[in-house]
Design a protein that fits this description.
Helix content: 40-55%
Shape: globular
Oligomer: single chain
Number of helices: 11
Distance between the termini: 26 Å
Structural class: alpha/beta
Strand order of the largest sheet: 2-3-4-1-5
Strand content: 5-15%
Order of helices and strands: HHHHEHEHHEHEHHEH
Number of strands: 5
Length: about 240
Amino acid sequence: MHTTYAHQYDRLFPHVDLDAWKNVLRAHGIDRERLTEHDTEANSYAAISRRNMARCDQQIPLVFRKALADHPDVLTWAQNLVGQAGGVVAPRIEHGPSLLLLGPTGVGKTHQAYGALRWLAPTGVVAPWQAISAVDLYARLRPRKGSDTEAEFWKLAMSELLLVDDIGAERKATEFTEEVNFRLVNYRYEHHLPTVFTSNVMPQQLAERVGDRVASRLAGMCTQVVMRGDDRRKRTA
């Protein structure tokens, strides 16, 4: 497994044609025709990589800012997402597969999820993303005076790439949480919007936590990865 993303472009560049690469440079404000002999395409690659990684890491919680995705199924999902990127001006994630990481607390699901977002950052593919935990999702969307919760819902639902952490964490779902889960998952399922979900349950428990309708859609839209092991947080405590 790679422990660094420094040579990511070396792996991806053979799959990007010259015109597509020109568009990537242009999208990042680099005029290829004005490059000096010292500003090689490789250097431009590195510059874009560093810029995107810095922007990505600013959005990520501090504890996950060095997260590296090393699970083969997670990396395959990320590679497939890049491979399906479209767009006229520059490769952009518009639609694609989703990912569901299942397993007990502390096995590294959230680490892998943020690591996958960091893996995408230096690829040159435009991938705006948002991340939210399920408990914060419900708090943000709970009706309250002076808040347009419907607008908040659509900001998340229509995000080009979305991470929802700990869906189904509550042991007893309420009518409200079931409605939020279904609306969000169903919209992203119907519009083929790539989403990363993590959940602290095993596959056979998922329907019990999120309901049959949500579990069915998650099964239909996601690559499912089951992670096992000890609680890594306890090992480092």
